[in-house]
Amino acid sequence: MKICRFCRGTSVLCQSCLKNVREGKTTQLEVDVARALHSVDPEADYESVTDGSRIVITAKKGAASKIIGKGGRGVKKMEDALKRKVKILEVTDDRKKMAEDMLMVPVIGVNVLYDGKEKLRLRVSRRYASRVSRGSLDSLSRIYGKDLDIVYE
Ligand SMILES: [Zn+2]
Questions:
Q1: How far apart, in Å, are the Cα atoms of 107 and each of 57, 100, 153?
Q2: Are residues 31 and 85 in the same domain?
Q3: Distance in Å, CA 60 to ligand 1 centroid
């Protein structure tokens, strides 16, 4: 859960945000990310934070490009503050576009499979297989909120 606007600009947490951290509804990473983001752009807002091989921050169209900044300056600033690699991912209903943005390779398609529950299968050309990292796939799966596998064809 995100911390409130007030807490993003200060180094202390209000009673309500503190309660969420204590109850585990807000992670320390979310607190750190919200504050790092505030230092880049106090107006910028994000949707979610996913921890993995990189910190993946999702943001709405427009907000994402604002956070990334000119020549990736915003991302660099956040990486310096968080001392971790950061990826800003634009949220869209287009799963293929999000997958391409996350994996940085062309995606042929995203299929929805039903195997008791809904899961997703990414189809990617074999030639890009070596460029797809497990960590990015895991993060993508958590962002979609669904099991995800990948086939190379
Ligand atoms: Zn607060």
A1: 21, 6, 11
A2: yes
A3: 22
Is the same domain home to 30 and 11?
Answer: yes
Whether residue 51 sits in one domain with residue 30: yes
Determine the distance separating the centroid of ligand 1 and the alpha carbon of 8, expressed in angstroms. Answer: 8
58 and 112 both lie in a single domain: no
Residues of the chain above pLDDT 90, percent: 89
Q: How much distance in Å is there from the Cα of 98 to the middle of ligand 1?
A: 30
Query: Ligand 1 centroid vs 97 CA: distance in angstroms?
Result: 34
DSSP letter, residue 43: T
32-52 pLDDT, tens digit per residue, is 999 999 999 898 899 999 998
pLDDT of 99-129, one tens digit each? Answer: 999 999 999 999 999 988 899 999 999 999 9
Tell me the average pLDDT across 92-97: 94
Q: How close is the Cα of 7 to the center of ligand 1, in Å?
A: 4
Q: Do 143 and 89 contact (CB within 8 A), yes or no? A: yes
Contact between residue 150 and residue 135 where contact means Cβ atoms under 8 Å apart: no
CA of 52 to the centre of ligand 1 (A): 25
- Domain span at 128: 95-152
Above 90 in pLDDT, residue 6? yes
Please tell me what DSSP assigns to residue 116. S
> How remote is the CA of residue 67 from the centroid of ligand 1, in Å?
21
